[in-house]
Every structure is written in C-alpha cells, then in structure tokens.
Amino acid sequence: MDPLRRIDQVFEAAKHIAFDDSSRIILMSDCHRGDGSWADDFSRNQNLFFAALTYYYKKNFTYIEIGDGDELWENSSFFDIKQVHSDVFWLMSKFHSEGRLHMIYGNHDMVKKYKRFVMINMHQYFDEPAKRYVPLFKNIKIHEGLILIHIPTGNKIFLIHGHQVDCLNDRLWKLARFLVRYLWRPLTTFGVNDPTRTAKNYKKKETAEKRLTEWIIKEKHMLIAGHTHRPMFPEPGEPPYFNDGSCVHPRCITGIEIADGYIILVKWNVKTKEDGTLFIGREILAGPRRLKEYFDCNDVFVISNYI
Question: Which residues lie closer than 8 Å to 275 by C-beta, 6 or more apart?
Fold first, then answer.
C-alpha cells in the first residue's frame, strides 16, 4: 500500500481530542520500557522519566504516549516490564484515573492493538502483598492515531507513531519482531546494530521523515510523530512536522509540550548546581512558539526543500 494512503487510513479512524489555549499536554514516545536486563534501554533514564512525569502530573498536564512505550519485540512478557518499572506504571495509572492519559501504539508495542492483550495485561494487575487484582489502566483503549482539535480555530494536530510508512515495521511487523527477538537482540552483545530499527539507521530515518512530510504537504495538517528518535521542531513557514524524540537518548529524555497556546520541545537531564549537587532539570531545546504561527501558515509553507 502507498505510504501516504496508509497514513490516511490512520487519520480517518483517529479519535478526536478537543483542546484550547488553556490546555496542557505533554507528548513523549519511544520509552521502550524493558525487563530491567542489559538490553533495557529505558533503565538508565527511568529516574529522569519519573521526575519529568511527576512534574507534569503536578502541573495538571495530560500525558499522551505516541507509541513504543513498552519494548514488546525484545520481551514477550508485559508482566515482567510492569514489575520492573512498577513506579512508572503507578504514576501513569494516576494520570489515567483522572482522565489525563492517552496511548498510541507503535511498532515495538503493536500487540496493544489487540483488545484481548490490553484487557488481560493492562486493565488490572495482581497485587501480591494484597493478594488481589487492582486496577491499572481500567478500560483503557490504545489507539493507532489521535487528532487534537483546537477548539478556537478548528485546526487539527495529527498524532501518529510513524512506523506506518515502513512496510517491514508495519505490515510485516511480526517478521521484524521475530528477527529482533531471536537474531538481532543476541547479536547486539557483540556490538552489531539492528538494521530493522529506524532509530539506528540514517537512511530509514530520512525516508520516514520524507514520507510523513509529504503527507503534511498534501493534507495541510500539523503532525507530531515519534519512531525515528530524532527530535524535530520546524520554523513557521516550513511543513509542520514535529518529532518528540525519545526517552532512550544517552543521558536525557525529550518531549513536546503543548501548553497555554504554545508548543515547546524540551529535554530532561541531570544537571549540577554550583555546590556540586546533582538534580534533574528541564531545558528548552526549541520554542516556545505560538501554535497560531503554525495554524496560520498551513496553506503557505515552503515546500521546495522537502520534496
């Protein structure tokens, strides 16, 4: 199937979420939460993630995870992931209980598109000390795409993981999962990079970004994706393709905030005070920019450098 038509399918089926200039939303993706083993890329940044999410919880943000939240290609057991990162899931469940959590699945957690998997693994969990099942993400629905609708203007921001433009990571995902789980994961111990991962393949990144940008030019909508792990924040007048980066960068995590009518690309990392004390802090990488600047130029952005 043509990659642009594949994105159209996701867009047409996407749930709509209304927001306005008083709304606060944090977008993150590609956490790749694992089982705590040597292959768990999330483990080294789990404290950064927990600190950032605690900040957003206290500031009344809605958390939207744009795919690959859990590493379910390398790991077959969601239970093991939840046990190792129980503090993170506890905090995310607080967002969910207050109606402030939305999830999109990516290629590495594609199994979340199956309602039975979500019901068995994510609606509740067994609390061993209490010896009973307790709610986790009760009745949650995991989406392939979401559309944020700006109430004052009616403009749309399309949220998608981005793997849909790559046949191997989309329609052939079960084959890709098999190769990762039983071939490439063992080989990484010898320093061999997994060629199926867009995040570690420059040409695949370029191709994915080009196809997503082509869709934006065709449809005239803002789009925020993950998948490539490469943060993107365009200038007004350029095709509005944004990417929130990932939570598995060396020594930092990145995300996109939509807050009080502005959009901002941020990172969280360990910083040092003058007295040598370490702390986890937030840093602005790009922006803030008014969303209105991107809405106003949807029909006039420069396309010569993107096709």
Answer: none
Facing residues of 283 across strands?
Answer: 267
- Tell me the whole-structure pTM to 2 decimals: 0.90
Instruction: Round to whole Å and give the CA distance between 46 and 54.
Output: 12
CATH of the domain at 218: 3.60.21
Q: Which residues contact 190 (CB under 8 A, 6 or more apart)?
A: none
In a domain, 34, yes or no: yes
Domain of 228? 3-296
Residues near 202 by Cβ (< 8 Å), separated by ≥ 6? Answer: none
Amino acid of residue 73 = W
- Closest residue by Cα to residue 57 from 109, 95, 24, 98: 95
Q: What is the pLDDT of residue 189?
A: 53
304 assigned to some structural domain: no
Rounded to an integer, the average pLDDT of 172-182 is 82
Q: Are 225 and 242 in contact (CB under 8 A)?
A: yes
Rounded to an integer, the average pLDDT of 79-93 is 94
DSSP line for 203-221: HHHHHHHHHHHHHHHHH--
Position 39, amino acid: A
Asked whether residue 307 is domain-assigned, the answer is no
Please enumerate in sequence order all residues whose Cβ is within 8 A of that of 42, keeping only pairs 6 or more positions apart, or say none: 31, 32, 33, 34, 49, 71, 85, 247, 248
Number of domains in the chain: 1
- Residue 155 CA to residue 174 CA, distance in Å, equals 36
pLDDT band, residue 190 (cuts 50/70/90): very low
Within a domain: 86: yes
CA distances from 302 to 49, 52, 87, 223 (A): 36, 35, 45, 16
Give the helix/strand (H/E) hosting 50. Answer: helix 46-58
Mean pLDDT of the chain: 89
